[in-house]
Amino acid sequence: MFGMPDPLYTPEYVCAGDEVATVVTSKGTIRVRLDAEGAPIHVANFCELAMSGYYDGLKFHRYVPGFVIQGGCPNTRDMTSDEVARGMRGPDGQPGTGGPGYRIVHEYDTNPRNSHDDGALAMARSSNPDSAGSQFYFCLGAQHMLDNDYTVFGQTIEGLDVIGALRAGDDIESIRISHEA
Predict the structure, then answer these.
(1) Residue 77 CB partners (closer than 8 Å, separation 6+)
(2) Which letter does DSSP use for residue 140 in this model?
(3) If pLDDT is split at 50, 70 and 90, which confidence band does 5 have?
(4) Model confidence pLDDT, tens digit, residues 13-65
(5) DSSP per residue, 146-170
(6) Neighbours of 94 (CB within 10 A)
(7) pLDDT by residue (tens digit) across 130-155?
(8) How far apart are CA 31 and CA 6, in angstroms?
(9) pLDDT, mean of residues 73-102
(10) Which residue of 1, 54, 73, 145 is 20 to 30 Å from 101, comparing CA positions?
């Protein structure tokens, strides 16, 4: 119904607790240890989307120097890198406004490791705390002012240099989930 928020979703994926995301971008590869203990809903949601191929072919659409690089908006799928970098509206809408058609419950106030350190992986959302869906960001340096408002669900273990090189319009070639002790 028009004006109604997307429904809340509970992922079906069962976290093993040893998930690592490998994010292949046009600038290189990033590896992130996911925090299934601290943010099980966010990790399960991210794993489901990654394993379905949802993120493959999307672009990073928001870059704020010294703050974050953000991606995961499906509205970037049918846009060129240049269109995204220039902030143009795509055929599916404005980059940064799309999602999977559902939202998940926030976990920033229940996650004991909800710390926006350099390279932290967290979920973007609107002003509604329970509005995250598919858009995520990497911190470009510590951003602890976000700790009480956004859910961190992973920490970069390889590729901080790649994160630092990413800009709006760069490709998310694939995101794969593996299990590593």
Answers:
(1) 57, 58, 92
(2) S
(3) confident
(4) 999 999 999 999 999 999 999 999 999 999 999 999 999 999 999 999 999 99
(5) GTTTS-EEEEEEE-HHHHHH--TT-
(6) 14
(7) 999 999 999 999 999 999 999 999 99
(8) 30
(9) 97
(10) 145
What is the helix, strand, coil percentage profile of the chain, to 5?
15, 30, 55
Pull the structure tokens for residue 136.
Answer: 């995520």
Q: Is 71 exposed, middle or buried (0-12, 13-18, 19+ CB in 10 A)?
A: buried
Looking at residue 141, its amino acid is: G
172 phi/psi in degrees, rounded to 5: -95, 100
In the block, tokens 């990654």 appear at 50
Cβ atoms < 10 Å from Cβ of 11: 18
Q: Which two tokens stand for residue 103?
A: 């939202």
- For residue 25, the surrounding DSSP H or E stretch is strand 19-25
Whether residue 78 has pLDDT greater than 80: yes
Q: What letter represents residue 31's amino acid? A: R
pTM (2 decimals)?
Answer: 0.96
Structure tokens at 90: 């795509």
3-state secondary structure of 72: coil
